[in-house]
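REQUEST FORM: STRUCTURE PREDICTION
Request ID: SP-0412
Submitted by: Lab K.M.
Chain count: 1
Length (residues): 359
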Amino acid sequence: MNKILVELGSRSYPIYIGSDLLGKSELYSQHIKSKQVVIISNETIAPLYLKTVLSQLDKYQVTTVILPDGEQFKTLDYVTRIFDELLSNKFSRNSTLIALGGGVIGDMGGFASACYQRGINFIQVPTTLLAQVDSSVGGKTGVNHPLGKNMIGAFYQPQCVIADANVLDTLDDRQLSAGLAEVIKYGLIRDADFFVWLEENMSALLARDKKALSYAIEQSCINKAQIVSEDETETGVRATLNLGHTFGHAIETGSGYGVFLHGEAVAIGTCQAADLSRRKGWLNDVDVDRIITLFKRCHLPTTPPEDLSADRFIDLMSVDKKNVDGQIRVILLKKIGEATLPIGINTEDLRETLDGYGR
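STATUS: Completed
RESULT:
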């Protein structure tokens, strides 16, 4: 087992990465502060792993909330189901919520933890590659709104993250590919050597080679932990983690939540950001081709949906947390391994990519 520390002073916490971690009771017990524990999971993950987690918590008062599986259920209405369970069982401020699932469960569980009695204990147990390398780390929590993705939420750090590589054995190929989109992101924004490693080892990752997957998870978490430690609430460098996300969130919202997996939308959005970076004179044709080729090798989409017009893209991108005074701001690449902080883009420049790339 490897342990990576997210250094945030009194809110610092470990990320545990390894195999067979779900069955290690000590990883839970050292971060639980009272007898009351609620486990949040979904209808896909609970039949696979809930029993294992429950067996480690036999000395606690445990209740469970099982939600439907899918981005379309990441709403305030379904978070209310979590509050109903906490209130009906008279859970106190010292209770602990364990989020067992992918990014949707982690975001909803974290948001409920931040809100219930103004903050309760929270443990992340991510069960998808995307959640292990990205959404479970850093304390971003929240839900979607019909007008924008993740626009309702809070920064709220967990007590720990337990990333068990063995759970990826039951992850379907589409979800694995979606997670690799976020892994590639770290190479693009700050770690060019890691990007080269991904080019050389993508076949092993897709074949679920445990050594390759463990290394990719560890390097991704190291990169994110460093960024979060430097900028917890996204006032600076943390915004670079949103490479491709302004385009990607527009795709998710415009297509209907759940049509594209988050990683699929981010892959398309990152290719669009690469195209715009080329038009700004930063990336060359070879750089852009390397980026698109790597996403394609992951069996990820790289062009936007045909029914999403440039006007609709711009309308959706105008609802984004990075925007300031109504101006669309996006993360671009100066080169592979170096991202910009959010920069304002006028609609004429943006339209060149929206009308020109992949159309």
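NOTES: The first strand starts at residue 2 and ends at 6.
Reviewed by: T.R.
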